[in-house]
């Protein structure tokens, strides 16, 4: 295979991957929009930002915000508060496959919302959170 053809194939694959990630994220957001119920008027990055930054009461005292582990800059590598394990950036610009697997998204919200908020997140909160981090 010629180097030029190989380069073309690599470049052609990148947008398809990005488009696939965007489509998967859109499908997840569409599901949360449908679950948000009557009166839903769209997701808001402005509402998602304070969900990420906190602080919140009701959850574990050691995790009053997502930013506790993920840092206030969602583009930065975070660290688990207890284990110190690195956590890839939450920002979609830094971790393009973030929020592209519904099973993974639900697993994380199912674990982290009770730890941070002391309750499950609503579909509106989930969509706002993803919308905020998709713009970071």
TrEMBL record:
InterPro entries: Cyt_c-like_dom, Cyt_c-like_dom_sf, DUF1924_SHP. Residues 43-136 form the Cytochrome c domain. PROSITE patterns: CYTC. Keywords: Heme, Iron, Metal-binding, Signal. This is Cytochrome c domain-containing protein. The lineage of its organism: Bacteria, Pseudomonadati, Pseudomonadota, Alphaproteobacteria, Rhodospirillales. Residues 1-18 form the signal peptide. The keyword Transferase does not apply. It comes from Zavarzinia aquatilis. GO terms for molecular function: electron transfer activity; heme binding; metal ion binding.
């Amino acid at each position: 295979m010629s180097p030029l053809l190989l380069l073309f194939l690599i470049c052609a694959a990148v947008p398809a991957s990005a488009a696939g990630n965007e489509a998967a994220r859109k499908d997840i957001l569409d599901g949360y929009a449908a679950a948000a119920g009557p009166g839903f008027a769209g997701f808001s990055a402005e509402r998602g930002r304070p969900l990420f930054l906190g602080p919140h009461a009701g959850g574990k005292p050691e995790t009053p915000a997502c930013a506790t582990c993920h840092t206030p800059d969602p583009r930065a590598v975070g660290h688990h508060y207890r284990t110190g394990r690195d956590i890839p950036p939450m920002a979609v610009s830094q971790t393009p496959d973030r929020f592209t697997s519904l099973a993974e998204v639900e697993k994380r919200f199912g674990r982290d919302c009770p730890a941070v908020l002391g309750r499950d997140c609503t579909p509106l909160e989930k969509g706002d959170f993803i919308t905020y981090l998709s713009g970071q």
